Prior knowledge:
The protein is of the alpha/beta class and 296 residues long. 27% of the residues lie in helices and 23% in strands. It has helices spanning 21-32, 107-110, 112-119, 182-194, 217-225, 236-244, 271-294; strands at residues 41-45, 57-63, 81-87, 90-96, 124-133, 143-151, 201-208, 230-232, 248-258. A 5-stranded mixed beta barrel has the order 5-8-7-6-9. Strand 3 (81-87) and strand 4 form a beta hairpin. Helix 4 packs across helix 7. It is globular and about 55 Å long. It starts with 20 loop residues before the first helix and ends with a helix. Bound molecules: 1-O-phosphono-alpha-D-ribofuranose (R1P) and guanine.
Amino acid sequence: MPMENGYNEVSGVVNGSKYSYEDVQRIAQSVLDRVKCRPHIGIICGSGLGGLAEVLGDKEIIQYEDIEGFPVSTVPGHAGRLVFGSLQGKQVVLMQGRAHLYEGYDVHKIILPVRVMKLMEVRILFVTNAAGGINQDFNVGDIMIIKDHFNMPGFAAVNPLVGPNDDRFGPRFPPASQCYSYRLRKLIQETGEKLGMKDFIQNGVYCFLGGPSFETVTECRFLKVAGVDATGMSTVPEVLVANHCGMEVCGISLITNKCVMDYDSKQVANHEEVLETGEKRAKDMQQLISTVVADL
Length: 296
Ligand SMILES: O=P(O)(O)O[C@H]1O[C@H](CO)[C@@H](O)[C@H]1O
Ligand SMILES: Nc1nc2[nH]cnc2c(=O)[nH]1
């Protein structure tokens, strides 16, 4: 069972959905008991990007609601299924949808699937998302290779590593300046160029915000000054935990809309546009990730 609900005297935080190492071991084993696949590669699909599951061979599917502790997705574009299968001859596990803070989940709950993947021996993690473009040189439909992130809620201690540390997962004070693998960033860039995607591949910094409101104009302008290229409401908690436990991480954002930078603009962000752009670029995202996986 998860650690006791309520206030944790050691960490001083409400620790209701924090899972111990033994809890995660048990959950990982219960998932492995249900599938034949033994993946070393994990893929988390962002809003509208779960179509990659369709190209997996020998699929084995488990609904999140059938896995102890897994947060159930409540957002359109997030199917809420763990899909095992083969991609380019490699065994992979793919999350078709994720949970977000704004759905009401505690940050410790959001990252549980990443720790479960770790204990299933996943070593390389692809994390994708839909994001708004802060960088005005970016176009809708661009694919941004994440080189770094800005954990804005982290300024208020919203970080999945808050609380007692279990060294079996990773160190108390993990560095976070190299969360995104240089090797995988280069591989994605080169692969994208070979596939003729150079014109819409970008590199940049992703900012995590709590949502669910999209940003105000002033917030967007602030992020631009802070050096952010794209913003969204996910990814960073998962990446911090993956980095903590020594996974090699590749982050990819699809720029689904341009953030509004002008106070008099008539444009407004909306989730329908996010999903539409995801649909339009789905095939390219699939081809890019599949080709990179083939080369691993
Ligand atoms: O980050 P993903 O899960 O791709 O979803 C993005 O799209 C939704 C907003 O349209 C938000 O949840 C935002 O984070
Ligand atoms: N915060 C945020 N998340 C997004 N996800 C997709 N587009 C956006 C956006 O413009 N802002």
